[in-house]
Amino acid sequence: MVRINSPLKPFSTDAFRNGEFLTVTDSDVRGKWSVFFFYPADFTFVCPTELEDLADNQAAFDKLGVEIFSVSTDKHFTHKAWHDTSPAIGKIKYTMLGDPTGAIARNFDVLIEEAGMADRGTFLIDPEGKIQYIEITAGGVGRSATELLEKIQAAQYVASHPGEVCPAKWKEGSETLKPSLDLVGKI
């Protein structure tokens, strides 16, 4: 089962990005922060709203040094066709991974085997290739790029400030906590 601090498993797949086809492997992900954003299928209903939200917030992800990889069990050819025909998907500049065998979705434990599609799963991978954030929602529940950005900021802060933690509702620039005996029972 995939858990926090689980390592990114090896993969190699075809992808679509900025009008081109390319091959992406787990080696391409290491050394930087990245988000794997699984969704059930191209040409559906909730999925384009989520992917468009990510595209609309691309600059904020770029500012944090985070690369986005959307993933469905569709082929990279289908991603291109969707990109070329949907105004929402046409905004996407990030990499859309094809996962027609479900291997990557299986690696992250989000493949719905009987349907051949992925659950709505979001995974934040740190530069060492370890999972630092996991969110899985029901098929009818869309996710928010703004909320994801807040989680990324907190994860990056904690990674660069050992001994500090981010409390609930933490926003960049606000106070953190330094767990110690002095705090026990004071919060």
Mean of residue pLDDT values = 96
Secondary-structure element order, N to C: EEHEHHEHEHEEEEH
Relative helix content: 25-40%
User: What's the total number of strands?
Assistant: 9
Shape: globular
Please tell me how large the radius of gyration is.
Answer: 17 Å
Main sheet specs: 7 strands, mixed
How many helices? The count is 6
For the terminal residues, how far apart are their CA atoms? 33 Å
The stretches of 5 or more residues where confidence is low (pLDDT under 50) are: none
* Spatial strand arrangement across the major sheet: 2-1-5-4-3-8-9
Helical/strand content category? alpha+beta
Strand content: 15-25%
Give a written overview of the molecule:
It is found in: Cytoplasm. Its main location: cytoplasm. Belongs to the peroxiredoxin family. AhpC/Prx1 subfamily. Helices cover 28% and strands 25% of the residues. Strands 2-1-5-4-3-8-9 form a seven-stranded mixed beta sheet. Helix 4 links the parallel strand 4 and strand 5.
